[in-house]
Amino acid sequence: MAMQVDKxxxxxxxxxxxxxxxxxxxxxxxxxxxxxxAPHSSLWGDFNFSLNGILEYEIEQQxxxxxxxxxxWLPPQTAHTSIALDEQITHYICIRIHSxxxxxxxxxxxxxxxxxxxxxxxxxxxxxxxxxxxTADYRxxxxxxxxQLKAAPAYEHYLPQSTHVSLKPLLQQLSNPxxxxxxxxxxxxxxxxxxxxxxxLSQQELQLSLSEWRNRAKILYAITQIRQxxxxxxxxxxxxxxxxxxxxxxxxxxxxxxxxxxxxx
Length: 265
What we know:
single chain, transcription regulation, 10 helices, 4-stranded antiparallel beta sheet, alpha+beta, Jelly Rolls, DNA-binding transcription factor activity, Arc Repressor Mutant, subunit A
């Protein structure tokens, strides 16, 4: 067993002696609303995230959402298809990682949290790439990118769903924009089972509290509305905030940018 471990470590060291740009590719794409990317898979691992807009993925018969602050890690040979949901053009990033380096990443699909530094890093890599030469600085940026992806917080889903007979209709209400002005307590009062049981059920089925799940649903709605030009004041009112500043604080807490910064991307 010890000899096998040493052999694997040696092979990994040999791989990393090769230029890193041979093992990592960073590309960007632009999608119109409802544009579909046909089902496909890759021998490499894929990390996909949006600089703006939202994509919906179908991966192994499950639906995943990818808003600007969360991306999707797909291991090698993971079949997937996607569709752009935003009314505006969606600017999307695909980072492909050679299968020989994927041992440091999850062996199943994960939702990764995107920090501002990683977004800036990708912008810099794309600018360097346009210059057409693999410099030492460019290679350093790629290595930092890999390290950032390894360290990014990972989740099963951004907005998980449930088919539970009592939870499913409640989630439909919690994600309904016409009901965002109502408090969570008001919606729970009309539920078919006790609040205590629903809260316990949400943790079992979603691994999220109902309040956190609803906040994420609000964020997805807010992103699409901001990109369509809706004013912060009107959107804050729709989401149940009396003051725009409270909504801006909420939005920044989840996306690490203000509505104005998202609109200007």
